[in-house]
Amino acid sequence: MSSVQDLDYPKQLLEYRDGFLFSKTLFTACELGIFDLLHKSGEALSTLAISSQLGTNTDATDRLLSACVGLKLLKVEMKNNEAFFSNTDVSNMYLVKSSPRSFYQMMMYYSKTIYMCWHFLPDAIREGKRQYERAFGITSEDIFKDLYRSEEETVSFMHHMESIWHICGKDVLAAFDLSSFKEICDIGGCSGGLAKHFLSLYPSSSVTIMDLPEVVQMAKKHFITDGDIVFLEGDFFNDPLPESDLYILARIIHDWTEDKCLRLLNKIYKSCRPGGGVLLVEALLNEDRSGPLSSQMFSLNMLLQTEGKERSASEYHKLLADSGFREIQVKATGKFYDAVLGKK
């Protein structure tokens, strides 16, 4: 679109204005169980049938269903002047709660936690700090005490972290040949989602997840059903790290300030065996700061929820080099998350 057309009718601006309307429509349909109901039914249902089973207002439900058709989350078929709705293939795969690749818990975390934080973005920009106190009345100085403030919130966050690996996990782990690394330590490995992908790609390796005690307990209770993955309870800043061939830090470095990143990476370098390495998995910014838009939005979210930010490949390169790592390589996956490998 030319600049003249943009000035005459700023379509993109109007789409940005409505962005949160799209998100909340998606979140609401998930929360009410519309996709689950349609999946279970196995056939298209009318508005009246859907609202009756959900216990919702019929007219309001019809508007929501229509909006979901517009968002290409549902399909509609007219029969005798009446609309019948069914899931799209994408909704069946990613929005039905029982699907192995479900994003349902991610959507709920965005709706109930992240969306609340974003109400206070102007305050975060003015103050340069996270907004959990305003959003949830929490005053802790420890970001993970905020994130894990209840079992329900802990499990919701862990589901959110796990779900993205359904579509990105194998890509980031296959970006480099990691088969020579036999003992792996997944630092802050949370639910074990990425660790499971690692073992499927490199079955001769072993993986130990190091995470906070409350996270390990919830992982064993809700996520890990076999003994292939070993868990180690600990705080990676304050407790000793296990000696390993490869350390994975997936969406960890972006949580912290430069000083804390260097403190952790230096600690990892000292614990890493000779010839070993560290794999960072992060949403990389372009060097000229032109994008990607998703990484730029993630960086704002880091401001609202953590102490950190997203960084460019050169910034991660410098963090690793300053910590002693060499032969640093970067691989883009074409998805949300990319891979950076440094060797000792």
TrEMBL record:
Keyword S-adenosyl-L-methionine: yes
Positions annotated as active site in the UniProt record: H254
GO biological process, one term: methylation
E.C. number(s) listed in UniProt: 2.1.1.4
Associated pathway: Aromatic compound metabolism; melatonin biosynthesis; melatonin from serotonin: step 1/2
Protein name (database record): Acetylserotonin O-methyltransferase
GO molecular function, one term: acetylserotonin O-methyltransferase activity
Pfam families xref list: Dimerisation, Methyltransf_2
Domain O-methyltransferase C-terminal, chain residue ranges per copy: 118-326
Name of the gene encoding the protein in the UniProt record: asmt
Keyword vocabulary terms for this entry: Melatonin biosynthesis, Methyltransferase, S-adenosyl-L-methionine, Transferase
Task performed by this protein: Catalyzes the transfer of a methyl group onto N-acetylserotonin, producing melatonin (N-acetyl-5-methoxytryptamine).
Keyword Methyltransferase in record: yes
Quaternary structure annotation from Swiss-Prot or TrEMBL: Homodimer.
SUPFAM superfamilies, sorted: S-adenosyl-L-methionine-dependent methyltransferases, Winged helix' DNA-binding domain
InterPro entries in alphabetical order: COMT-like, COMT_C, COMT_dimerisation, SAM-dependent_MTases_sf, WH-like_DNA-bd_sf, WH_DNA-bd_sf
Species of origin: Xenopus tropicalis (Western clawed frog)
Domain O-methyltransferase dimerisation: 15-96
PROSITE patterns: SAM_OMT_II
Regions crossing the membrane: none
